[in-house]
Each structure stands twice: as structure tokens, then as C-alpha cells.
Design a protein that fits this description.
One of its GO terms (biological process) is photosynthetic electron transport chain. Keywords: Chlorophyll, Chromophore, Membrane, Photosynthesis, Photosystem II, Plastid, Transmembrane, Transmembrane helix. With 158 residues, this protein is mainly alpha-helical. It has 2 domains: 94 residues, no CATH class; 59 residues. Helix content is 46%, strand content 0%. It contains 4 helices and no strands. The longest helix is centred in the middle third of the chain and has 24 residues. The protein is elongated.
Length: 158
């Protein structure tokens, strides 16, 4: 439930900031002067384009792709809904005795195996996020060497 609330807040806050953000002058009126909180963090992770046709670098974009500012915000809202549904399912089926075999009285669920599967899938998701955003596998832009938008941080490639 907590993850659903946090992801929902992040997605809805990003959509709100996109609604009030003015990308027309990134030099004299940058995002931090406009009171943005979520968009700068999205930009540091490599999101630079919008479905509205603008880019944080100042140019126009014809095909921003799925993972634009709006796409990431929408993905957070969808993920929030899925986490909320998972929380409701776990709340409804909290009594594990309903998963017991009626003949033997023993649990029919292998709880350590289920817990391990959950941990494995969470680990794969976290590793995938890191692989795509830290190493630059998604595109040439990564959070450690995003030189084309002016963020100079991390190790300098030789």
C-alpha cells in the first residue's frame, strides 16, 4: 500500500508539474526557478523529451518515444494502481488457513518459495532499472554521464 501511495504521488506530481511547466526559455527560466520538484529528478535519470514536442535541451522533438515525461508519469500511476490492487488482494486473503489442504490440514502453499519468487522478481526489476539508467543501455544518456543536457557528474569517460 505504501509503495502504491508513493508511486501514485510521483506520477500525479509529475503530471501536475508538466501542466504548469514552461519549457520556452531553459536558460533564463529553468525548471528549478519554476518550482519544479519531480521533473529535475526525471531529467537526471535521462528523460529529456515530452509528448508535447519539446525537449529540455531546447529543441523540438518529432518522436519522443514511450519513455517521455508523460510516459514515465503514466507508468508510475499504472504501477501505483497495480500495487494498490496487490495490497487489497493481500488484505482480503490475509488468513493463510484458507490455503490449507482440507484432508491433511497442512498448508498447500510453499511460503518460502513464494517469498523467494517475489524477491527475485523485485531484484530483476531493480537490476533492470540500474542497467538501463546507469550504464546507458537505453540510449547514450545515463545518469552518470549526461553531458548533452549540462549535468556533468560521475566518472569522465576516457
Amino acid at each position: 500500500m505504501h509503495t502504491a501511495l508513493v508511486a501514485g504521488w510521483a506520477g500525479s506530481m509529475a503530471l501536475y508539474e508538466l501542466a504548469v511547466f514552461d519549457p520556452s526559455d531553459p536558460v533564463l527560466d529553468p525548471m528549478w526557478r519554476q518550482g519544479m520538484f519531480v521533473i529535475p529528478f526525471m531529467t537526471r535519470l535521462g528523460i529529456t523529451n515530452s509528448w508535447g514536442g519539446w525537449s529540455i535541451t531546447g529543441g523540438t522533438v518529432t518522436n519522443p518515444g514511450i519513455w517521455s515525461y508523460e510516459g514515465v508519469a503514466g507508468a508510475h500511476i499504472v504501477f501505483s494502481g497495480l500495487c494498490f490492487l496487490a495490497a487489497i488482494w493481500h488484505w482480503v486473503y490475509w488468513d493463510l488457513e484458507i490455503f490449507c489442504d482440507e484432508r491433511t490440514g497442512k498448508p498447500s502453499l510453499d511460503l518460502p518459495k513464494i517469498f523467494g519468487i517475489h524477491l527475485f522478481l523485485s531484484g530483476v526489476a531493480c537490476f533492470g532499472f540500474g542497467a538501463f539508467h546507469v550504464t546507458g543501455l537505453r540510449n547514450s544518456l545515463s545518469s552518470y554521464c549526461s553531458r548533452n543536457i549540462g549535468h556533468i557528474s560521475g566518472p569522465i569517460p576516457s
